[in-house]
Amino acid sequence: xxxxxxxxxxxxxxxxxxxxxxxxxxxxxxxxxxxxxxxxxxxxxxxxxxxxxxxxxxxxxxxxxxxxxxxxxxxxxxxxxxxxxxxxxxxxxxxxxxxxxxxxxxxxxxxxxxxxxxxxxxxxxxxxxxxxxxxxxxxxxxxxxxxxxxxxxxxxxxxxxxxxxxxxxxxxxxxxxxxxxxxxxxxxxxx
Amino acid sequence: xxxxxxxxxxxxxxxxxxxxxxxxxxxxxxxxxxxxxxxxxxxxxxxxxxxxxxxxxxxxxxxxxxxxxxxxxxxxxxxxxxxxxxxxxxxxxxxxxxxxxxxxxxxxxxxxxxxxxxxxxxxxxxxxxxxxxxxxxxxxxxxxxxxxxxxxxxxxxxxxxxxxxxxxxxxxxxxxxxxxxxxxxxxxxxx
Lengths: 191, 191
Prior knowledge:
2 copies of one chain form a homodimer. The first copy, chain A, is an alpha+beta fold. Chain A is 15% helix and 40% strand.
């Protein structure tokens, strides 16, 4: 069941979910196994008719293996309310903690397109198809995805724009620096 | 002359300048020509002993040409006080506006290492050597740089950490969404 306020974002506007550089959760599934990890190193690569993203995935992560075999993943934006969850899934590995997702309170639901599980409580989601680039993956741990579906919590993102200033503070996105220190996305300003 | 409060950042901590996903200015120089552009699509690629960054540079930009010929560039973090400058250098091209930098009030100084000009008034700087990857550059406009020098304004970044909460608000970094709308880097929170 999709969460309340889950609303589609047109693909040509989907870059706006990630453009401000928040930390993301990366989810993937293969053969009945699902994993979720945190990544601060995710970025828009292209927009318009060919929305694409990059994300750096360490070779030690189980999520990376699932992506390499399934060819699908999702990036999603956790909130200030999900700080502990974000650090938890970014620290513990499914390799050594099989019940990692349950322990960190991760609740999943199915993406409407993309054949990938999404994390409830986030405020933006990008379902991606892996664009295989073996050299980048091996040499740099760098993965490229074509965005095939995008959604947002319409309390904080609607008509193509973030609306943090009129929503609860707990729904703001977060930006990791190091060692569990984050910045919350701050005030909107117009040039 | 380097600006006041310009202070070196150890290379193994340099990723912390970019980890929270701010919008950057990209500077480069070749044959006596200097250009500066804005880029929201810049990201950490690696840290520790091999600090690296990615940045997406459209084929239409003059800055990209300068980087391809010189093999050097810098990423630097503009502040809330530099919103207009950031949008200005991100909108106008040196191709059609030869005095672009002067018009937008860009003041430059020389990086201590890296043979690249830096933009005054920013709060973090990463001097990079281009790591040629022709396929990425052609197919995705994606450029990889090895970080060879890093500096920060010690009013806002010292002992390896951002200290926005104790500095003037005008020195906060900024995160572009679209159409000149930015978010300021907000409150620090610890998981």
